Amino acid sequence: MHVINDKKEEKRPNISSEERRNLFIYLRRLSRDLRADISTLGTAANYLHKLLRRDISKKVCHYTLATSCLIVAADVCEDRGFNKRDVINVSHAILHPGKSPLPVDQPLFWEMRKSMINVAHLIFREMKYKLKCDLELPYLCEYMAKIRERIPQLFAERQVAEKAMGILADSYVDMEFITDHSPKTVALTVLSLTLTALGISIAKYADDEWPAALFYEKLRPSKCAKLRKRLVECLYAGQLIVPKPEIIPEVVDIE
């Protein structure tokens, strides 16, 4: 199979903006329901973002492609919390709500399994086996550790880490935001949004919108505020709330 040059990744996606958003919402829900690691979701989202700009996305069902991206990412990230049967059942439940799970003795189950494995092999080749991604999660953990040192009790009581992880996971619905900015910028914006939503401020930096100097001096408070606003508008319809899994939009039945 011909491997497309990396320069072609700059092409526009082969699907509309609405279809692309629905696809990443599906990937977010799939990873959530499988309880996949955030690193697995982030890696899969990066693969999908690139592959939607390549010819493979014209030949493969987009939902099969997204599902297979998660399978490959789980392998790369050594995420052993689920298997292919789990992926098939959860994917089927999301795309066909109200229908019964596929029994393993049905031909359709094995056809889906074979299809996902075949597409996973194509993904390895399309990505030229360069499967590691510079993710936002390590930076977010580093920044949260600094916050926890200053407000340990409040950090635990408000579940800052759990909320920030949820917002980061939701952020992969807006892959343009992820790819437009460095992982450090995304991580700091996510943490800033988390603290803002929880009403937490750092006393030492009370006069600033955000203690950028504490973490990443290139991200100034004014820019951080703009990025927070973009995330809130894109992910949560402009409502500054602590996100819950239930607010993730439903994916329409593709039948």
TrEMBL record:
Presence of keyword NAD: no
InterPro entries, per database record: Cyclin-like_sf, Cyclin/Ssn8, Cyclin_N
SUPFAM superfamilies, alphabetized: Cyclin-like
Record domain Cyclin N-terminal: where: 10-91
Gene Ontology molecular function: cyclin-dependent protein serine/threonine kinase regulator activity
UniProt keyword terms in alphabetical order: Cyclin
One GO biological process term: regulation of transcription by RNA polymerase II
Keyword Membrane in annotation: no
Recorded coiled-coil stretches: none
Name of this chain's protein: Cyclin N-terminal domain-containing protein
